[in-house]
């Protein structure tokens, strides 16, 4: 079994973004290139999103007799414009620098895999097996997030809107699809780097022939992995900060709407939607913390193993 290169592992991300009309082009020999068709398609998609968003909010009618209109509008405005703002920041960053940096990082990981395979211990076969598992993880995460959480979640939110439900559904869903896709891409990178740290730690923990030579090479691989992790953090740090802040804001806003209903003893579908959204955003934050902490644990574990030799 031959290991998949990083570009093949992240093919689901590339395909998902292309379906959404987003194409970051190619980066080869230090130069970045765009196809005219892809550029025009991306421009048309984003223009349509902007037009539909402006049209929806401009033509929206506020019904004075609509129950909980102010609370519901608070939730919708924060979710709609908050996610749209994060999407714009992500795309501006991706088109300006993130895509190129991720491409370079992916090639560095591919090169590191060649170095790790030289240790033996079955690492070459393990890297090949893990490459397919990483792509499967990415694919399943995108399907679950987009079809279950985003599509169903936004449909339930649009359900409580008094008018123009279909338009709002698509205006709200498109930014969430883009943000979620890029967010899952980051989580997959952390999983890939964590597995490489585990391999280095296994090499360090072994005592056998060529032990001194293997330790030196393992420490060098650890140094490279640490640098790659820092690069990954520098690429996504601002976007992740915005995403976490937005998630906390939306949790507070949804809980505010839920408590409003509870204290007034009002039975409304918006209460179920608010509870569901709060749980979704909380799970998102918890899983992000888990992935980052697992990566840091494996990176720091190497020092403990070296001190125990």
From TrEMBL:
The keyword Nucleotide-binding does not apply. Pfam families: 7tm_7 (PF08395). It is found in: Cell membrane. Keywords: Cell membrane, Membrane, Receptor, Transducer, Transmembrane, Transmembrane helix. The keyword Nucleotide-binding does not apply. The chain crosses the membrane at residues 37-57, 77-95, 137-161, 167-189, 240-267. One of its GO terms (biological process) is chemosensory behavior. GO terms for cellular component: axon; dendrite; neuronal cell body; plasma membrane. It is a multi-pass membrane protein. Gustatory receptor which mediates acceptance or avoidance behavior, depending on its substrates. Belongs to the insect chemoreceptor superfamily. Gustatory receptor (GR) family. PANTHER family: GUSTATORY RECEPTOR 8A-RELATED (PTHR21143:SF104), INVERTEBRATE GUSTATORY RECEPTOR (PTHR21143). This is Gustatory receptor. The lineage of its organism: Eukaryota, Metazoa, Ecdysozoa, Arthropoda, Hexapoda.
């Amino acid at each position: 079994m031959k290991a998949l290169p990083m570009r093949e592992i992240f093919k689901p991300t590339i395909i998902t973004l292309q379906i959404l009309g987003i194409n970051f082009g190619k980066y080869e020999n230090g130069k970045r290139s765009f196809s005219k068709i892809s550029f025009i398609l991306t421009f048309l998609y984003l223009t349509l999103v902007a037009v539909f968003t402006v049209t929806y909010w401009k033509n929206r009618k506020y019904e004075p007799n609509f129950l909980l209109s102010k609370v519901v509008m608070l939730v919708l405005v924060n979710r709609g414009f908050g996610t749209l703002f994060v999407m714009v920041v992500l795309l501006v960053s991706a088109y300006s620098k993130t895509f190129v940096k991720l491409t370079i990082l992916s090639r560095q990981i591919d090169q590191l895999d060649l170095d790790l395979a030289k240790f033996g211990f079955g690492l070459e076969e393990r890297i090949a097996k893990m490459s397919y598992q990483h792509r499967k993880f990415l694919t399943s995460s995108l399907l679950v997030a987009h079809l279950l959480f985003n599509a169903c979640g936004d449909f339930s939110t649009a359900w409580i809107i008094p008018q123009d439900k279909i338009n709002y559904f698509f205006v709200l869903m498109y930014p969430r699809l883009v943000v979620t896709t890029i967010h899952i891409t980051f989580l997959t990178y952390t999983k890939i780097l964590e597995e490489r740290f585990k391999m280095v730690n296994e090499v360090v923990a072994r005592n056998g022939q060529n032990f001194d030579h293997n330790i030196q090479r393992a420490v060098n691989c650890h140094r490279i992995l640490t640098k790659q992790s820092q690069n990954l953090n520098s690429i996504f740090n601002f976007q992740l900060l915005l995403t976490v802040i937005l998630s906390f804001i939306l949790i507070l806003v949804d809980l505010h709407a839920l408590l409003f209903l509870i204290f007034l003893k009002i039975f409304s579908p918006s209460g179920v939607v608010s509870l569901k959204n709060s749980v979704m955003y909380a799970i998102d934050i918890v899983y992000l913390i888990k992935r980052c902490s697992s990566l840091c644990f494996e990176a720091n574990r190497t020092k403990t193993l070296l001190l125990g030799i």
